[in-house]
Amino acid sequence: MILRNTPPTPARLAAAAIATAGVVLAATFAFRTFSLPLLLASIGGSAVIVFGMPDSRMARPRSLYGGHALGLAAGFLAVLAGRSDYAVAGAVALALVAMLLTDTVHSPAGADPIIVATGGAGWEILLIAAGLLLLTDLLGRFVGWCFGDPPA
Hints:
By secondary structure, the protein is mainly α. The chain has one domain (10-146). The chain has helices at residues 10-34, 39-52, 61-80, 85-102, 112-119, 124-146. It is globular and about 50 Å long. 37% of the residues are buried.
């Protein structure tokens, strides 16, 4: 991890803000179109990490994709278990354990099991989330490339 002693430049701040806003706008459009507004918070959290803390382990593509994949999978297990409060709590715990074991911890992904199990999302959420995560990753790489950040 690179520790910064100086604050980011105004250009870096603007790029991070614009990229974050772009991802959230795309997510808002997708979720209004498919009536899945709850995952928006999770994607917004991911954008803040990728663009605001690009040197963080949670900003790595492995953590971004892997954490969300495990969180979504745990959410679907909670659906299969009946969506009870215990199933939802167990799914979040399972997602965390899976992320720890695979070195893919990404804190916004901890909300995914709750969103899937309580929001009535179907399998389409996987494709929508994958597209938005890809957009977040690509914009993060572009912003990093523009400012000379080493790849995460």
